Amino acid sequence: MMNDRVPGLLASLAAELERAGALRSAEWRAALLAVPRHVFLPRFYIDEIGPHGVTVFRPVSADSSEDDWLALTYEDRTLATQLDGSTTPPACGAPVEGVPTSSSTRPSTVVRMLEDLEVFPGARVLELGTGTGYSTALLCERLGSDHVTSVEYDAELSNVAGERLASLGYHPHLVVGDGAQGHPDGAPYDRVIAAYSPSRVPPAWIEQAADDALILVSIVGDLDVYAYTRLRKVGPDRATGRLVDADVSFMRTRTVTRRPAQLRAAMAARAHAEPVTPRMDVSLLIDQDYLWAAQLALPGVRRLWVGDDHWFLHPDGSWAVLEAGDDPRAYEGGERRLWTELEDVATRWSEAGRPDRERYGVTADRSATVVWLDEPDNQVGVLS
Asked: Rounded to whole angstroms, how far apart are CA atoms 62 and 246?
């Protein structure tokens, strides 16, 4: 029977997360063992490489393959639960293309953040991004439902998560709304944890946090580089902290756009542009520490891939592309020379000792989220 397998799958998952260093305490281990993840994942998608090299998503559910479905729900992997804002994956069917808009984050990331949250008995927690409700359930198991408030943008996701939580006896305060606004009616909160990635620290989170509260958030910039940040509230509307030694990422806020029309225009202009021989090591375009520095220096520049080519777009119409291959060539056009600017950032970053993300910190208040290097006085960028 399926239920007979769950305790063993949970125990194996707990052991895996302990070996990885994500699960570090007896309290969160007990919570993990008490919450069956499969309840929150009756259907989901598995990403695969399609016949033309494009990522496709195969629907999986107990209806299509119970053994496969159950085993996958207890693997340490992120499982997409929604594509392009559609409500529920089909029970079965051929793989489909799409853009994930909601998912169940891999358990090691969820548990790592919960450990980092440093909760205590009686702590009031504000969670932004209910999603499937799995991490909400872990918080309820540890702290009690009346100490947990969770905000979800998608009303249907919130309703479904509430039903699944209730089926296990959890009844947190679920709110439908913009996570960036928090939930002032439940403030102050001792801990704030974000299960989606905004582009900066929303002021409402700081204002609704209690004195000395912790705020955990994975910030994402325009070049899709994430910065897992642990802040402490140090004033009425101010919080500060360093980036944490972990690659933690979530779905971006729903308001992000990909600029397909601008990409089409840039691709047309590329046909008439002269090539530029790259001065920089093009492997830097997959170096997350360099890209973090680049997105601080070039706010508003977005990165897209077309095959193996790296495209960079700015709202003013400027563009650049690196065409990969044995003899890579760069092209640029528009008001600015984005490829030249990217190379200039690489030069400055190398001269500064190629700092990694752990050397950065963030100070956020009502007006801005400021990024600094090594010390708060050494400001190097502003997130917006």
From this structure: 33
**Could you write out the DSSP letters of every residue in 15-39?**
HHHHHHTS---HHHHHHHHHS-GGG
Give the CATH H-level superfamily of domain 107-243. Vaccinia Virus protein VP39 (3.40.50.150)
**Residue 383 CA: distances (Å) to CA of 125, 213, 287:** 25, 22, 20
* Structure tokens that stand for 99 in this block: 């853009």
**Cβ–Cβ under 8 Å, residues 383 and 219:** yes
pLDDT, tens digit, for every residue of 160-212?
A: 999 999 999 999 999 999 999 999 999 999 999 999 999 999 999 999 999 99
Ranges in the chain annotated CATH 3.30.310: 260-351
96 DSSP assignment: B
- Residues with Cβ < 8 Å from 319, sequence gap 6 or more? 262, 266, 269, 270, 311, 312, 313, 332, 333, 334, 338
Q: Do 319 and 313 touch, CB atoms closer than 8 A?
A: yes
Distance CA 16, CA 205 (A): 33
Q: Could you tell me how far CA 355 lies from the centroid of its own chain?
A: 22
Closest among 357, 375, 117 to 247, alpha carbons compared: 357
| Residue 380: closest CA among 314, 365, 357 | 357
> How much of the chain, in percent, has pLDDT values that exceed 90?
76
Cα torsion through 261, 263, 264, 267, rounded to 10: 160
Ranges of CATH 3.40.50.150 domains, the chain: 107-243
Secondary structure letter of residue 64 according to DSSP: T
Which CATH code is given to the segment(s) 260-351? 3.30.310
Return d(Cα 102, Cα 11) in angstroms, integer. Answer: 26
Whole-angstrom distance, CA of residue 259 vs CA of residue 142: 42
Q: Across the chain, what does the average pLDDT equal?
A: 91
Q: Token digits for 277?
A: 């021989």
The helix or strand, by DSSP H or E, that contains position 166, with its residue range, turns out to be helix 155-167
Whole-model pTM above 0.85? Answer: yes
Give the Cα separation of 324 and 302 in Å (integer).
18
